[in-house]
Amino acid sequence: MDDYSTKIKLSAEHLIRVVFPEKALELDTLVSSPVLSFSEVSKVRAETRLPTADDIVAHSNNVTSGDDRHNSTSTLNTNTTKKRRTDSTDNANSTPSIATSRTVDVGTPVYVFNGVVPSNPLITILEEKLKPFIFHFLDSIAIIKLWIQLMIPKVEDGNNFGVSIQEDSLAEIRTLETDVTQYLDLTYKYLVSRGELIKKVAKYPHVDDYRRSVQSLDEKQFVSMRFIALELRNHYTSVHDLLMKNLEKIKRPRSVQTHSMY
């Protein structure tokens, strides 16, 4: 167990001193890059590829015309066979027959969307770039929390100022951990909401507001991705700054006091 505790302490200090500053700088570079620039918002809107009413009608008409050609050929063959049978029946029977006819009512055509609506490629790229940072932060915070817990001494009366610093640091880190965990929920909720709107677009392609709502949702997600990148950069920086400033108190919360009797 002592070897395991030593390993956790070394890993936590390496994360605080080296890894967290590197991650903060990487995220700062990403935020400053054109990928997360607000000038990309128009491109995000343009990359929203949705079926239009004309596309669905054209597809349905192509399918219908193909079925009509097949049905007309089948009908022609059927009518020829029936004509031959009718002629032979008329020759055998001299009694006049009463011809009956049926009228088939044609209903309103139903247009069905057939195809795949892809995810917005720009949003997908941003998610792939940011998810590794989210996973790394959560994994690293778990190690740092355990490290601080191992540094907390046994309960004693007095001289607990260093212990209060440990507890305050632990509480701050847990708050940041909760915030970052919610970023994953944000991505999941975006995908579910977009899927529901796409279903509306496919069902009501003539309603332009559904189409615009998908584009607006993509724009909102782009802004949220930029916000997540900024917050992750700030979280890496603040954890590094907080723990480096209080590193000595976290490692040695109680000072060793010796009293001389002479």
From TrEMBL:
One of the protein's GO biological processes: regulation of proteasomal protein catabolic process
Residues of the Proteasome activator PA28 C-terminal domain: 117-259
Gene3D superfamilies: Proteasome activator pa28, C-terminal domain (1.20.120.180), Proteasome activator pa28, N-terminal domain (1.20.5.120)
SUPFAM superfamilies found in the cross-reference section: Proteasome activator
GO cellular component: cytoplasm; nucleoplasm; proteasome activator complex
UniProt KW keywords: Proteasome
Chain segments carrying region Disordered: 55-99
InterPro entries the record matches: PA28_C, PA28_C_sf, PA28_N_sf, Proteasome_activ_PA28, Proteasome_activ_PA28_N, Proteasome_activ_sf
Annotated Proteasome activator PA28 N-terminal domain residues: 2-51
Domain of life of the source: Eukaryota
Keyword rRNA-binding attributed: no
Molecular function terms from GO: endopeptidase activator activity
Similarity comment text for this entry: Belongs to the PA28 family.
Function comment: Implicated in immunoproteasome assembly and required for efficient antigen processing. The PA28 activator complex enhances the generation of class I binding peptides by altering the cleavage pattern of the proteasome.
Protein name: Proteasome activator complex subunit 3
Species: Rotaria sordida
Organism classification: Eukaryota, Metazoa, Spiralia, Gnathifera, Rotifera
